[in-house]
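To whoever is on call:

I kicked off a structure prediction for a single chain this morning and the downstream step that reads the tokens threw a length-mismatch warning. I double-checked the sequence; it's 106 residues and nothing unusual in it as far as I can see. Pasting both halves so you can look.
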Amino acid sequence: VYTWVNNGASPGQALLGLEVRNAADGARLGQEQAIRRSAFLVVPIVSAIPPLGFFVFLYQVFLAYSVSIDPAKQGFHDKQVGTVVVRRVGCGDPTGVASTSEAPPA
């Protein structure tokens, strides 16, 4: 949550050159939106509980599937919270992000 709000990306997303943005206006996520997105992604500690771990795994497979079949590459979690994942661009763009096939039309 902290890294989405302050950096626009998790450490892994940053390594891949990705950012999570508000789908409506392209702004960085606020704390409430980041918390809701995290809740839909299921906090990893829940998977440590053996009976729940299997269901968390199935849910993660569902999230990956929802991203793969959506033309805009928005997963179930992104649609529920109103977020989109975009690629970062080079220093020439003052906004720091670029619209890609993953971003909704303006």
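Update from on-call: the warning came from a stale cache, not from the record. Cleared it. Sanity check on the structure: The CA atoms of residues 19 and 51 lie 33 Å apart.
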